[in-house]
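Checklist before submission:
- one chain only
- standard amino acids only
- sequence pasted in full

Submission:
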Amino acid sequence: MSDLNQIIKDAEALLQTSEQQTGEGFKAAKAKFEATLKNAKEEVIRLEEAVVTRTKDAARATDEYVKDNPWQSAGVAAGVGLLIGLLIGRK
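Returned file contents:
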């Protein structure tokens, strides 16, 4: 996501520095590129919103599960902690 944001920033900078160029072909290409860049920005925003929504949903589901099954959750957490401890101890 950060790479895509950087590409968008670089493309905007390129568009700003190329304003001195003239010619109908260049103007048409620039307009098309600006439209593509606008769509890319909108897609990044949409993806970020989707990720945030899914993350919040997962957090809510986890919270509900832990509240409904506290002992099972504690057992799973202990098992994961034990496994991580064993893996760290092996090295």
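Reviewer check: The chain has one domain: 2-90.
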